[in-house]
Amino acid sequence: MRAEPSPEPKAVRRRSVAARRSPLEEIDAFVLCGGYGSRLRSVLGELPKALAPIGGRPFLDLLLEQLARQGLRSFVLCAGRGSDAVFEAASGLGRWGRVAISVEPRPLGTGGALLYALPHARANPILVVNGDSLALVDLSAMLAFHRKRAARVTLALSRHRGPLDAGRAVLDPANGALIAFDDSRRRAGESLANAGVYLIDPQALQELAPPEGSSLERDIVARLAGAGAFGFVGVERFLDIGTPERYREAPAWIARWIDGDGRAPCADGGGEAPALERYRKMLLIRRAEEKIQARCKEGDIKAPVHLCIGQEALAVGVCEALSARDQVVGTHRSHGIYLAKTDDAEGMFAELYGRASGPGKGRAGSMHLARPSAGLVLTSAVVGTTIPVGV
Description:
- The chain has 14 helices and 15 strands.
- The protein is α/β, with parallel strands linked by helices.
- Strands 1, 4, 5, 6, 8, 9, 10, 11 and 12 form a nine-stranded mixed β-sheet that branches.
C-alpha cells in the first residue's frame, strides 16, 4: 500500500520533548524496602536488600533514578528492619525528588506497611514498587491503562517461560482484567509474571488491608481478581536481586540494560524464552499491519499510512539491542518500531483512528507516532529530517 506523506505538523515540530509535563509528576512512588532479606544475609549481613551496593551505589539509588527518569518526583520509603541505614542513605537520594520515610512500628507485611505509610499519599493512584527489583516498564502507558479502565489496582506483568519465582497472573484477553492470581512460587511453564510494580487506589488499601498486617499480593491483589484488578503486560526487562546468584549478576545486568555498556544475559535467563519473545513481537507487528491494511482497503482507516510489512525482524532486533538510555527517532514506516518498543497495539490503533486515547491524542497519526517515556522520541514522514534530529 502506498500513500503520500503529509507535512509534519508545526505543533509536533516546535514542541520540545523536554518541555512535556509527565503525568507521573503528581504520583507518589512507595518503595517497599523493609523486608528481612534472609536469602541475602550471607552476603549483606544486616544491611537491607534495598541498600545492596551495585557498582558502588545503593540499589535504592539506582531504582529511584530510573523512576525519576520517567517523571516521578515524590518517593516514600517504607522501611522496617534496618531503618537507621535507610535514613542514612536517604540524605543522598534527594537529588531525585522529595523523599519521605515511613517506619513500620512492627513487621506488618507489604500490605500493612503500605497502609501505615498511606498518610504520605497525595493523589490517586499511588505507585508501589519492590525495593529489591527493577522493572523496565513504561509507567506513563501503565498509568493511562489504569485510568482508562478505572482500575482499583493494576500490576505490571512480564511474559516468562520456565520456573517462576514470582506471582502468576491470569488475564481476560479482551480487556486485561485479572481473573486469577497465584502467589505460589517455582511454577514451570509459560506465565504472566508479577514484576512487583503496582498502581493502587488508596481506598482499596484502606478497605482490604487490616491494620495488624497483610500481604499486598495475597490479601489485596488476589482478592481484587474479578473485582477491579487489571494486568498491564508491558515489562521489557526485569531484575530481582533477592538471591546471592541474582545479586552477583546485577552489575552486568545494570551495565547492559541501564548504562548501555558491557554484556549481560537476558532478564529471563537466556535459552529459548528470548527467541520466543522476539517471535511474539514480530508476529504482533505483522498481524497489526495486516489488520491496518485491511481496514484501509475497507475505508475504515482514512488517514495516510505506510506499512512496515517485511521489516518486522529489523524493528524487533534493533530495539532489543538498545539500552534503556537510548533514544529512537523513526521514519514514516515506524509502526514496527513503536510496537517493538511499547507492545501497545491498542494505543497505536487508537491513534490511527484519531482517538484521544492514542499516544498522540489522536492528532499524530500513523507517521508521527511517539512515546518518549519508552525511548521513541518522535517519528517523521519526511525521512531526511530524522538524521539531524537524531544527531
